[in-house]
Amino acid sequence: MIEFSWMEGDGAGFEAARAVRHEVFVQEQGYSLIGEFDEQDADSFHIIGREDGAPVCTGRMFWDGDGVLHIGRVAVLPQMRGRQVGLQMMAEMVGKARPLGAKQVVLNSQADKTAFYEKAGFAPTGKTSLDEGVPHAEMAMMF
């Protein structure tokens, strides 16, 4: 069973999120270390999912305009994939966004991961971008 906890900013406890993101984005997917950890971490809500006390997934949310929360840095360790861990975490994130007063939640999905976010209730907006050369599609959920 996955247990989720939240923290704000990049202070105490951030190392668990950092470790998961480093393994998934830097080691596995080849993103730069400089690009992965940025100033937005200090202003974000971070979720950490743990199994038997060990961090296995993470993501962050930050305010991106009036009533808009932006989800990013969603990462699940390879050995945990296929067990619905990512969908559980997305449900936790959306569940936190509503009481915070969000009217909309947006994210930028890697182009090959949009089906996952559609399962989580997000819809493509038609906007695209590149992040370190990797195509991304903006997706949103309205409340």
CATH topology value: Aminopeptidase
- Strands ordered across the widest β-sheet: 1-2-3-4-5-7-6
Instruction: Report mean pLDDT, rounded to a whole number.
Output: 97
What is the second-level CATH architecture? 3-Layer(aba) Sandwich
Helix share bin? 25-40%
CATH class designation:
Alpha Beta
How is the main sheet built? 7 strands, mixed
Please provide the count of β strands: 7
- How big is the Rg? 14 Å
Characterise the protein shown here:
With 143 residues, the protein is α+β, with helices and mostly antiparallel strands. The chain has one domain: Gcn5-related N-acetyltransferase (GNAT) (Aminopeptidase, 3-Layer(aba) Sandwich), CATH 3.40.630.30. The protein has four helices and seven strands, in the order βααβββαβαββ. The chain has helices at 14-28, 33-36, 85-100, 114-119, and strands spanning 3-8, 45-51, 54-63, 68-76, 104-110, 123-131, 134-142. It is globular, with a radius of gyration of 14 Å.
Condensed summary:
The protein has four helices and seven strands.
List keywords for this structure.
143 residues, 7-stranded mixed β-sheet, 29% helix
SSE layout and pairing:
Blueprint: E1 3-8, H1 14-28, H2 33-36, E2 45-51, E3 54-63, E4 68-76, H3 85-100, E5 104-110, H4 114-119, E6 123-131, E7 134-142
Parallel strand pairs: 4-5
Antiparallel strand pairs: 1-2, 2-3, 3-4, 5-7, 6-7
